[in-house]
Amino acid sequence: xxxxxxxxxxxxxxxxxxxxxxxxxxxxxxxxxxxxxxxxxxxxxxxxxxxxxxxxxxxxxxxxxxxxxxxxxxxxxxxxxxxxxxxxxxxxxxxxxxxxxxxxxxxxxxxxxxxxxxxxxxxxxxxxxxxxxxxxxxxxxxxxxxxxxxxxxxxxxxxxxxxxxxxxxx
Length: 170
Hints:
The chain folds into two domains: 1-31; 46-161, Chalcone isomerase (3-Layer(bba) Sandwich). 31% of the residues lie in helices and 29% in strands. It contains three helices and six strands. The protein has helices at 2-30, 71-78, 144-158; strands at residues 50-57, 63-69, 89-99, 107-120, 131-137, 140-141. Strands 1-2-3-4-5-6 form a six-stranded antiparallel sheet. The chain starts with a helix and ends in a 12-residue tail after the last helix.
């Protein structure tokens, strides 16, 4: 009986080990592209998040933009909470401005240009005001040089608003 229990225990350990290896291999194949420097990825379901505000970028970019936030960020905006709490995520989607074919005074989204992400984690990103940054084109992160400019721009212009440009459109 003892040998049968010992054999069963070995079998359970072997199965657990095989399961762990299979899970690790699967996670390697499904890992998301991450931004250099910060390791930020595109968050799941961000296109269903609530709108914080639209924006219009003039020349030279000439873009239509929409900033959305996860529930933590939305709650912070609604309650005027600064600094934003850890776990806040902001995503800016951008498209080239294209003249509307139906209404000549209007512009509509054209080709997508970038998706930019800010993730609040005061400990992990302590050297950049508590924020990690990601910039993606066609789902892939842009080069490290472009990511190095993110915090410097936010720090120079909106340090007093927890490094966030976008204000809540009520």
